[in-house]
Design goal:
CATH class of the largest domain: Alpha Beta
Distance between the termini: 40 Å
CATH superfamily of the largest domain: Fumarylacetoacetase-like, C-terminal domain
Largest sheet: 12 strands, mixed
Radius of gyration: 19 Å
Number of domains: 2
Number of helices: 8
Oligomer: single chain
Number of strands: 19
CATH architecture of the largest domain: Alpha-Beta Complex
């Protein structure tokens, strides 16, 4: 299934994608889950109830009439792995990591799949990083790699927008990775049964009409299951945690001269079997806001 978080006529809920339309679960289920995390917590029994309800639906809402939101509106954690594609490591001049390199993006960075992305008032070194993302569907700890597939709730596109000069302010990279609007995800969540093996998906990114990134998730150094096994040795992964799995080569900072984004640029991220999302870069409103 493809499951979307969307708004229509001043109401926000979740629905099932059906071609170019959405089945509003609130209209076909007496006790529809209020959000995607609630549906994930309901497990396979909840997913089956959604499948059956969708089959009985007699009305649909055209995609053109809804606003798509981030599938997971309020993740508990956003974890992102760095230097996870060999060609990306080569273009940055770094050494292959001996261990997985992780940083977090603040949850306030979450953005809709077609929401505008801010050009920070404090920097012009804004870069793109197309990535496969997944969400944790079962609370877990100490998960062996061979069972890691059991805890994935679904997959979606992501773009790890990065403010490169601020990224260098701290070894953790958190500051440059966590500006507001810099973690768009979507356009919907695709359940694992529909994806199959997530390690053979084409991943692409365009800036305006120029293809900048063109790779495949098979080139990951540490695959999705490695990532779950590693992270879960340190801390509990909770339902709704979002994982960014790394970006391939072609980022702007690695070009000579660097090809950073500009206000007005369109950034399109596309992943095979999932779909695509697109952001327009806009100037940040730097007005002071308190309260």
């Amino acid at each position: 299934m493809k499951l979307a978080t969307f708004s229509h006529e001043h109401s926000t809920g979740i629905g099932v994608l059906d071609g170019e339309a959405i089945i509003d679960l609130a209209a076909v289920m007496p006790k529809a889950p209020p959000n995607m995390i609630a549906l994930l917590r309901a497990g396979e029994k909840g997913h089956e109830a959604v499948r059956q309800a969708a089959k009985s639906a007699t009305t649909r809402i055209a995609l053109t009439d809804v606003t798509l939101h981030a599938p997971i509106l309020r993740p508990g954690k956003i974890m992102a792995i760095g230097l996870n594609y060999g060609e990306h490591i080569a273009e940055t001049g770094r050494e292959p990591p001996k261990h997985q390199i992780w940083f977090n993006k603040q949850t306030s960075a979450i953005n809709d799949p077609f929401g505008p992305v801010n050009m920070p008032a404090v920097s012009s070194a804004l870069d793109y990083e197309a990535e496969l993302c997944f969400v944790i569907g079962k609370t877990c700890k100490h998960v062996p790699k061979e069972r890691a597939h059991e805890v994935i709730g679904g997959f979606f596109c992501g773009n790890d927008f990065s403010v490169r000069d601020w990224q260098a302010h701290t070894p953790t990279m958190v500051m440059g990775k966590s500006f507001d609007t810099h973690a768009p995800i979507g356009p919907w969540l695709v359940t694992p049964d529909e994806i199959g093996d997530p390690h053979g998906l084409d991943i692409k990114c365009w800036v305006n009409d120029e293809l900048r990134q063109d790779s495949n998730t098979s080139h990951m150094i540490f695959d999705c299951y490695d990532q779950i096994a590693y992270l879960s040795q340190a801390f509990t992964l909770n339902v709704g945690d979002v994982i960014f799995t790394g970006t391939p080569e072609g980022v702007g900072v690695a070009k000579s001269p660097p090809a950073f984004l500009k206000v007005g640029d369109r950034v399109r991220t596309e992943i095979q079997s999932i779909g695509s999302m697109e952001q327009i870069v806009v100037s940040e409103n730097a007005k002071t806001r308190i309260g």
